[in-house]
Amino acid sequence: MPGHGDFQGGAMGFGSPDAGAGGGGKVSKEQKTLLPLTVHQLLNAGQDEPDAPTFTVDGCDLHQVKIVGQVLEIVETATMRAYKVDDGTGVLSCRVFVEQDETEYAQERRSYCQKGSYIRVVGQLREYQGQRHLSVHDMRVVKDGNEITHHLLEVIWVHCQNTKGRMQKPGAVGVMGMGLGNMAGGMMGGYGQKMMGGGVGGGMSNLNQAVLDAFMEHNDGDVGADLATVIRSLSTRNITPQQVQQAVDFLAQEGQLYTTTDENHYKAT
Which pTM value belongs to this model? Predict the structure, then answer.
C-alpha cells in the first residue's frame, strides 16, 4: 500500500472525440451512470459481437467508467498521451487526446500525473486493433491512499448490486460478515465513512446536485455548458458564484463533470 508521501494534489479534465456522443439529444439515466470498475473487469467485459461498440459488465452496458491505479508508463505523440495504468488486477492504456491549442492551465494540471503516481481516471472503454483502452474524459492525481480502498469498496458494492439485486443502503449490506458502511469506516476512519456516504448509493449535497442539474439543463451538445451561464441561472436561487465554483471543483474531482473546450465549459458525465 503506498505511503502518504506518494500522493499529490491536483485535478484535470479533458475534451475527447467520444465526449458527448449523440449531440445535444436527451441522455438516458443509464448513460449518465458512472460505474467504478477494475481493469480486470474492463479487459474481460463482454460484447454482443466482436466489433460491437458497447461493452457489458455484470449485465450492465458500459458508458462512463472509473478506475484507480498507478501510472507505469507515459507515451506521448503529437495528438495523444497514453498512460499505462496498473490497478493490481491488470494493466490498461488510458488515452488523452490533446488539443493543439492546449492552455498553460491544462498543461499545468496534466503535469501532476507523472510516472509512479496514483491517478483516478474517468472515461469510456474502447477497442482498437484488438487492444482495449480508455478514452479519457477526466483524470486527476489521487490525494490520499484511502481513495484506493474506497474505490475497491465501491467496486464490490456495485458488483453485488448488479448481480444480487438492488441494496437498501451501503451500511445494510453484509460483505464477509461486515456491513459495507462499517467496513469502510473501520478501514478508513471518519474519512472513509464520509466518502462512502457520498459515493455510490449515497446522496450528494443539495448545492452540488443543483449545480449538476444546471449544467445538464444548459448543456449545448459537445461543448457542454458555460460556467457563467450556470452562475447566472443559479443566482435566482441565491447561490453565489463562489458556491457554484466550489461545487464545480467537487463535481469535477468526483468525475461528475469534465471540461470540454476550455476550463470554463463543463459537461456532465
Answer: 0.56
